[in-house]
Amino acid sequence: MIYEALQILKEQLETYLDDAGLGKIVVLENLALLDSGNDKATNLDDKVVISLLNIQEEATLKNMPTSHVVNNKAEYYNPAVNVNLFFMVSANCDLYSNSLISISKTVEYFQGKKVFTAQNTVYNRSNVSMQELEDFKFIVDLYTPGFEVWNHIWGTHGGRQLPSVIYKVQLLQVGQRKKQASTELITTIKGTLKDINS
Known about the structure:
single chain; 198 residues; alpha+beta; STM4215-like; six-stranded mixed beta sheet; three-stranded antiparallel beta sheet; 3 helices; 31% strand; elongated; Pvc16_N; DUF4255 domain-containing protein
C-alpha cells in the first residue's frame, strides 16, 4: 500500500498542476538521484519530485484483534502493520519562480484535499499494482520540521536545497492476508452441572 498511496498522490498532484498550467511535471522518484551523477538524474530535470522520506509504525494500533469468525470457525492472522509515511515534494524547475509556484500550488492542493478515499479519488486503475487495491482511506497533513532536521534531510539527499514541503500520510495498513491457524468455535456445552455447595 506504500507505493499505491504515493502513486495516487503523484497522479492527483500532477493533474492539479497540469490544470494550473504548469504541465505534467510530477515524478515519483528518489530525490537523492539529483546530484548522484546517475543517468536517471536527468529524469528529475524541470520536475516536481515526490520522494519517500520515512516510514513510521503507528504503535497505538499494535494490539488490534487478529482473529475473525468465518463459517463458525475462528481464523487467526498476524496483525497488519499500521504505518505513517513522510514524503517530500521538491520543485526542481528550470526557473526558480516556477519552483516557487509549483510548491505554492502543491500546498494549495493538499490544503483543499486532505482525505483520500476510493470514492473521492480518481486514479489509474489499469496500473498493475492498483488492480488489487480495493477500499482505502488515508489523510495527508502538512509536516514542518525545524531547520536542523531540514539540514539533515538535505544533507542525506546530496546537500543542494530546493523549494520543498513535507507531508505526513496517515494511516496505511501493510500486511498479507495469510491465515496462520483456524479452530472450531465452542457453540454448545453438554453434560450436567453439579452444585459444589451441596
